[in-house]
Description:
This protein is an all-alpha fold. It has one domain: Orthogonal Bundle (ABC transporter involved in vitamin B12 uptake, BtuC). The longest helix is centred in the first third of the chain and has 30 residues. The mean pLDDT is 81.
Amino acid sequence: MNTLRYLTDPALMGFYWPGVVAGLAIGLVCSLLSPLVVLKRLSFVGQGISHAAFGGIGVAAAVGVVGSAASSSLQFSIVLAFCLAAALLIGWLIERGAAQADTAIGIVLVGSMTLGALLIAWAATRGRGGSVSWESILFGSIMAVNREDAAIAWAAAAGILLAAWWFRRPMLFWAFDEPAARAFGVPTAAMKYLLIILLTLAIVTAMKLAGVVLATAMLVLPGAAALRLSDRFVSVLALALGAGLLGVVGGLVLSFESGVLPPGACIVAVLVAVFGVAHLAAGVQSGRRAT
């Protein structure tokens, strides 16, 4: 089996294990946030925030922070800060009633991408564009991850999970029954902003390592599958976690065994299959209850 050879051969372990470790970190944190994303109808947020990164890359190009390895971390910090600002703007538009969630995300998405395009073009005319590596940021490859990237992924996952655990009670109450949570004094606006901030950190980390499509899929499909099978939040979280990790492990195995299929696409394909099975199982359960 290719998988065992890749993960046990001393000559290959250093190349494959960092991607596997990073993938598990992404799967863990995104799967646990996924039910909240689906419940609050923020499924499009992954696309909005990840594409907002294009604006951050434009800012980095405009100030000349592009192109060199030494500036890579600073460039990523600028992208992260821009995405966080975009996410908070989305939350503000929704909270103030200026737009529905999907409309607010769409507005920020197109605005950020337009700003990025203009700034990159302006930077090029000033000789500051360099080799703007926006493709690698927006469409990362999980198998190109090194040990440092894997460590960063787990550090980010630990921080996100710690914050989610600390605020788990009010956040889950707000996610499953917002009117009741508001009546009991839960700061629902603060919970919304907290979720958006945590999602931003998860999305930017995931897309840097694995690309936009995988980051979005990991934030939607595990939660959607779990909510098809249960409406109890403990069960939903457990099912979402299982679905997410199954997608990561199954997708990587499929990619390794095929030898030609890209791992990110394989992970998404397995997640789609998991959702399909969950949807069919939910239909069978509904049919049995009806009879």
